[in-house]
Design a protein that fits this description.
There is one protein chain. The protein is α+β, with helices and mostly antiparallel strands. It has helices at 4-25, 35-56; strands at 67-81, 84-96, 104-114, 121-125, 135-138. The chain folds into 2 domains: 1-30; 33-138, no CATH class. The chain is 31% helix and 34% strand. It has a 5-stranded antiparallel sheet, with helices on one face. A hairpin with a 7-residue loop joins strand 2 and strand 3 (104-114). The model is unreliable at 20-28 (pLDDT under 50).
């Protein structure tokens, strides 16, 4: 009976390891946008908003790029837009312009879509009064 005990222990360890691997694999999806794509899209969206605001106010857009801090993703889900799989991301972030002391806390909503070959991501902006169609902006490769 002594040889049976080490075998049972080995089987118990193997079972625990297997259940851990299965549970961890459920936490990660290879189809979700990586954090770098989220940060690039958020940075691009802030810059696009700045240009739109400057145009509306008939001002020159800023040449510098804001710094993003404390990006928190609260919710992400997959949805279909025009028969394409699109990730809808909601969260909050802090940002500020270089040389300014004021941090601005803002919510965000982003839509990200994989490029055709699946190697890069794109920011998808919904139709607006200025542009009645969805707009797609490529994000830099990480």
């Amino acid at each position: 009976m002594v040889p049976l005990l080490p075998t049972l222990r080995r089987l118990a360890r193997l079972g625990a390891l297997l259940s851990l691997l299965i549970s961890l694999s459920g936490c990660v999806s290879l189809n979700q946008p990586p954090r770098q794509a989220l940060l690039s899209a958020l940075n691009l969206q802030v810059q696009l908003s700045e240009v739109e605001l400057a145009d509306a106010l008939q001002l020159s857009p800023r040449k510098d790029v804001p710094s993003l801090q404390r990006v928190r993703l609260d919710q992400q889900r997959l949805e279909r837009i025009q028969n394409q799989k699109v990730w809808l991301l909601h969260g909050r972030f802090d940002w500020r312009w270089p040389g300014e002391a004021l941090n601005v806390a803002s919510p965000f909503e982003l839509r990200l879509i994989r490029a055709e070959k699946g190697q890069t991501w794109r920011l998808l902006k919904p139709p607006s009064s200025q542009s009645p169609q969805w707009r797609i902006y490529p994000l830099p490769m990480a």
